[in-house]
Amino acid sequence: MSVVRRALIGPLVLILFSQAAAAQDPRLAARLDKPTLGSVRAIVDSARVAGLPTAPLVDKALEGSAKGSDGGNITSAVHQLYLRMGSAKRAIGPTATADEIKSASDALDAGVSARDLARLRSASGKRPLTMPLAVLSDLIGRKVPVATATDLVIQLAKSGLNDPEFALFQRNVRADIDRGADPTVAATTRARGLVLRTGSETKPAE
Amino acid sequence: MHDQRDPIESIARELRRPVQVSVSLDDRIMGEVRQLPHYGRLKLWLRLTTPRTITITPLRVGLAAAALAMFAILGAAHVGNDIWRVATPIATAMFPSIKKPAPNQRVQFVLVAPDAKKVSVVGDFNGWDVAHAGYQAQHRGGGVWSVTAPVPVGHHRYSFVVDDSVWVADPTAPRVIDNDYGMPNSAIVVSEQQK
Predict the structure, then answer these.
(1) Residues of chain A whose pLDDT is less than 50?
(2) Among B81, B98, B158, B170, the residue to mutate for chain A (most A Cβ within 10 A)
(3) Nearest to A149 by CA among A129, A161, A134
(4) Which H/E stretch holds residue A193?
(5) Of A67, A110, A106, A104, whose CA–CA distance to A88 is shortest?
(6) Shortest Cα distance from A149 to chain B (angstroms)?
(7) Which one, of A79, A11, A149, lies nearest residue B175 by Cα?
(8) What pLDDT digit, counting tens, does each position of A44-97 carry?
């Protein structure tokens, strides 16, 4: 066996060994019944092979266990998350971080399309997407229509908002809604104010 | 002179004559060799302990460096993922710009729940463990419950659990729609600057 072949095979064996070890999260074995544990581990292994983060899948299973869901529900939820993370990664690019993939899969779950995720990626340039995506999911959760919320967040990203400004936007919209404002009007008004302040006009969806 | 040359000529002629070797000679010799006893472990030990001369060519050095770089890049691609523990030390040594995972930040969670007897914070940062000791909120008076607990940098989902049974989303945090288990969650994005 040549030196070169050894140099190539050694690291690969190390990687495979470490990945296999990582699949055995002891918390899963402690909280899931055997059939569910087997199914969840199989999904986690598939995610690893696909280059997706595996921690969110383990967390999803633990969350289901904490919420008292049965094994079938847990397996289904973990599988759905695996599929969403795959779509999210394809939409926002192969260099996406685990946090970005996680928040993008939340956005997909909230009804945002993969195409809009790609638009947001393009609008954000190299800035991280985690906070804009968290704000987007929040707006949708507060009854702002998906199309409007998506367009607003993309406009804000295009205008160069940073994470603290996105967080402030979310807090202000939430406060307006809590005081009785219509969610769409609150979000559109706050977004317009921020975009005007940063110097580029926006045309939020009606 | 002629008499003296004759024996030499005859020896030389003998040596120049083509040797007739049986076609099965190789097979017979190899058969004998294969029947000799094996000393695999001894051979391995000798191989490991006997000094050897290694020839290093620029091509071999280049290929070995490329293999190491491939491992480092794989490690870099998985920073924050499961295998970073193995590959990151090499990756960070080769690419100093790669940062190690950031330490936890302390985050305050507050819930107003005047009728509660117990309030816990559960999330992906504590394995959704309702009984986790570090995430039990204290009653501060007037129905205000709070706990300040470590949360790793990144995007997290969490919820309050009141009296071990009622799941309540944090009213002050972004919501996460949960179509899986039908109970509310909140989202938090913890940055390295967050206090």
Answers:
(1) 22, 201-206
(2) B81
(3) A134
(4) helix A183-198
(5) A104
(6) 14
(7) A149
(8) 999 999 999 999 999 999 999 999 999 999 999 999 999 999 999 999 998 899
First to last CA, chain A: 67
User: What's the rounded Cα separation, in Å, for the pair A10 and A15?
Assistant: 9
Distance CA A17, CA A13 (A): 6
Q: Which of A15, A97, A130 sits opposite B86 (nearest CB)?
A: A15
CB within 8 Å: A109 and B179:
yes
The amino acid occupying position B81 is: N
Chain B residues within an 8 Å CB radius of A73: 180-181
Rounded-to-integer distance, Cα A103 and Cα A155, Å: 19
- Of the candidates A54, A80, A110, the beta carbon closest to that of B82 is on A54
The pLDDT of residue A202: 45
**Residue position matching structure tokens 């309030």:** B119
Q: From the centroid of its chain, how far is CA B162?
A: 39
For A107, the token pair is 């956005």
Dihedrals phi, psi of B144, to nearest 5 degrees: -95, 125
What is the b/e burial string over B129-155, where b = at least 16 CB atoms within 10 angstroms of the residue's CB?
bbebeebebeeeeeeebebebebebbb
Residues A22/A40, Cβ–Cβ less than 8 Å: no
